[in-house]
Write a structure and sequence with these properties.
single chain; mainly alpha; 14 helices
Length: 241
């Protein structure tokens, strides 16, 4: 083996070809599974889209670096499934750009945090984490309560995502601003539920119906995590030991 390597080192072109061959094999191993991805990713007919308000909350989540301490991926290990719920399926992140999978957990995994706590708890936690979790080292995001959410550009966010495969319609794009305001109000409009489904949650998520804030958006996003589809619960299997 070493003899072959020494001979290759003496012939530059042969060494280059050898490197290309080895790199090609590695690339093929990584790329080949992508050709069968349609057969391996689970089907989820009930999969719903993020509403404009939830999408704005997701953007805030990424902007504030929440992903650096919280993963959104429950692995197939028994201790994780028993703590967090059914392990994550690829289909649950099919509309996430970028997806939030990972294993960095300074704080708990948030893949199924939606509905686990009330809006009031989420707001209190974001304002003063140690008020509800004394051992928390999470910083305060109090400013979200007083920061008005920018809604005039939400249609552009939906339009950009539609170009990479997220099935937002032209109607959704045109009504993005109105839908975000309606969802953060006391009642969702008929247009909001017709576009995004009757399961869409509409209420003042920050407790103040007078203004649409960044807190509204972030809490709306947190409350939908793990609830875009029931595929993980329908396909639930025993976890690994």
């Amino acid at each position: 083996m070493f003899g072959l390597h020494y001979r290759l080192e003496k012939h530059g072109m042969a060494l280059v070809l050898g490197i290309i061959l080895v790199a090609s094999i590695g690339g093929l191993v990584e790329i080949a599974p992508l050709f069968t991805i349609d057969e391996t990713v689970e089907d989820a007919p009930d999969m719903r889209l993020y509403t404009p308000l939830e999408l704005a909350g997701r953007n805030i989540y990424i902007r504030e670096g929440c992903y650096a301490c919280h993963s959104q991926m429950i692995r197939t290990l028994r201790d994780e499934v028993e703590r967090y719920g059914p392990y994550s399926l690829a289909v649950e992140s099919k509309y996430d750009h970028p997806m939030q999978w990972g294993s960095k957990r300074t704080g708990p995994d948030l893949a199924r945090i939606g509905g686990k706590y009330s809006d009031e708890w989420q707001v209190a936690h974001l304002i003063d984490p140690r008020a509800v979790v004394p051992q928390s080292i999470m910083p305060s995001y109090r400013f979200l309560v007083t920061t008005a959410l920018r809604t005039d550009d939400l249609g552009l966010h939906l339009k950009a995502l539609s170009r990479v495969g997220v099935p937002y319609t032209d109607e959704m794009v045109v009504n993005a601003t109105a839908d975000a305001i309606a969802q953060a109000g006391t009642d969702g409009s008929d247009g909001l539920t017709s576009r995004y489904g009757t399961a869409t949650q509409a209420r003042p998520f920050d407790g103040n119906p007078g203004q649409v804030t960044e807190m509204d958006a972030l809490v709306a996003y947190l409350q939908i995590l793990g609830r875009l589809t029931d595929a993980a619960h329908a396909n639930r299997q025993p976890p690994e030991e």
